[in-house]
Design a protein that fits this description.
Elements: E1 4-8, E2 12-17, H1 38-43, E3 50-51, E4 60-66, H2 69-80, E5 85-93, E6 100-104, E7 107-109, E8 117-119, E9 124-128, E10 131-146, E11 169-179, H3 186-193, E12 209-211, E13 219-227, E14 233-237, H4 242-248
Parallel strand pairs: 4-13
Antiparallel strand pairs: 1-2, 2-4, 3-4, 5-11, 5-13, 6-10, 7-8, 7-9, 10-11, 10-12, 13-14
Amino acid sequence: MRIKTLYEDADFLVIDKPSGIFVHPSTALRAGPGESTVLDLMKKKYPGIQLSHRLDKETSGVLVLTKSEKAYQFLKKQFQARTVKKTYVAIVNGHVKNDHGIINKPIGRSPKDFRRRLAGRGVKGKIREAITEYKVLKRFQAPFVQNFSRLTLPRVRGGTYTDKNFEQITPFTYMEIKPKTGRTHQIRVHMKFINHPVACDSLYNPKGACPAGLNRLALHAKSIEFKNLDGKTIKVEAALPKEFKKIVS
């Protein structure tokens, strides 16, 4: 798998992570036998490379890696101080009513599924502060596939899906989302909390509508902004995936 480099200097490497690849095996959700991770691939060229943060397997977009322990610790302090600015875009189910909003709801573990996190009633274990800011970019209607985790999109000549291939359309919202904290699955959990879960999310929204032609989680890390070791602000952006462009255009 080829991974595009978006920015590189002596200390930092920023890549455009594709959807469908783990960044690093974890105790809860490991890559399968022979399945490479982002870290595996990057270490072939940069033996001492380290992840400074993570993206979920199905999330695409900007991911920062550090080339030295000094750079790693420097960036880690920025994450802890919440001075790193991250911007995502997502397609969610339904029409979000407010054009702007802030979700301030602590997140803990789900008592029913160790893979999931939860905001609101029934939270298990340690509860952590979580704040997410959002802005509506576009409200639209589109053909959809129901229950994304179980159904396969129909075969269409040329790979093009049109309204004629589906009997119904349903509302979606295209959003810009800025997490102010860095909790596991934060955006996915918070959007589900306000009853507008991220489309095509097999873990948090398995029975929800998925836009026709999109066969991955509808979440993309658009940009990140941090300071390098010289104190200069570095802002890196990842282009919107073509499958997103087609749906929201």
